[in-house]
Hints:
- This protein has 126 residues and is mainly β.
- Helix content is 0%, strand content 50%.
- Strands 2, 4, 5, 6, 9, 10 and 11 form a 7-stranded mixed β-sheet that branches. It has a 4-stranded antiparallel β-sheet with strand order 1-3-8-7, with no helix packed on it.
- The chain is globular, with a radius of gyration of 13 Å.
Amino acid sequence: QVQLVESGGGLVQAGGSLRLTCAASGRAFSSYDMGWFRQALGKEREFVARIGWSGGSTYYTDSVKGRFTISRDNAKNTVYLHMNNLSPEDTAVYYCAADRGITIASMTSTNAYRYWGQGTQVTVSS
């Protein structure tokens, strides 16, 4: 089992940058695939990015490709989401998620992840 805590959200102007951090506690963090999701007000939670347990494979939803970067530091039990060139459409609560053995076919589904953080708010002003 793993516990997740996100941080780093805040208010930023369009075109700005933020780095979200997901700190994990529990055993065998390095064996978990990690994902970032977001949920805008009144909308369903949606997939943003995923990184494999070793850090060697990353995937992104089309709307953030070239702007967001997911990375991890297994020595620090931490996953990051670097967000550049933010737009008001990126405004949402961002969630970190984890589980083992997440397939490429399932990685965009919230059902694929058993463990979730509490979320951190990102607000982008125009």
